[in-house]
Amino acid sequence: MIHSAMLKKMIRLKVILCLLLFFVTINGCSSLNIFGKKELTKASPDQLYSSASAEYKDGHYKKAQEHFLRLKEEYPLHELAVLAEIGIADSLFSDKEYASAVDAYSDFISLHPVDENVPYAIYQMGMCHYKQIEAIDRDQTETIKARKEFEKLIARYPESKFLPMAEKMLKEVKQKLAEREFYVGNFYLKQKKYQAALARFERIAVEYPHVGFDYKIEYYINETKMKIAREEKEKKNKESEKKTTEKQMTNKEHSDFQYWVEDSEVN
Questions:
Q1: Cα 225 → chain centroid
Q2: Helix, strand or coil for residue 38?
Q3: Cα(263)–Cα(86) distance, rounded to whole angstroms?
Q4: SS3 content of the chain, % helix, strand, coil (to 5)
Q5: pLDDT digits (tens, 9 = 90+) for 222-263
Q6: What are phi and psi of 115, to 5 degrees?
Q7: pTM, entire model
């Protein structure tokens, strides 16, 4: 009986020890979940920014965006959160999601109007529109928007390091708009709508000087004016001939009537 009682105590003690060991193990392995996989520990702002930058550099733009977004949401007051906003916009731009990138850069400018990265954000907005420019025979809304952003950067931040780049891109944008105007003007010229053609050519001369069209446009303006003058001369000649013909017809009718009257009097 004593042996049996001791055996029961020993078994009970083993059970207690096993339970204690189990709880100790669970407590000591709090970093493990029920599936045996390591849980993600909360990364610091520097770690998140570093991870995002590495993903971006490797061309994994969506992953980079996720890390930047996590940094912005988990540490909204940290100084890196501001750079994360730029990182999100850059990730969208590099992933060719230009419309979304424009919104992201625009939001950054609205939230941080005096931040040192505002000139960069404006330049990137211009580039977003530039990347969406269509052929000269298509709608040029994006070209006009790109021009607006580059002109804004040049006017507001003349000391910015992005100024030379903005000036270069503005010249390219103006050249594309000039090509569009010339395309339309040349179409009117072929249709012999000379006044409409002249208006387009003169607009290029006034709005888009020094973009590679000066000599060409001067020639087309002069040529179109000559065609207009020739057309007006031909029109005047036709009107003069018409008047002469009408006068001759009137004189003939008068002569015939006079002859009829005289002939009637004789008879």
A1: 37
A2: strand
A3: 103
A4: 80, 0, 20
A5: 999 999 999 999 988 888 777 777 777 776 666 665 666 566
A6: -70, 150
A7: 0.74
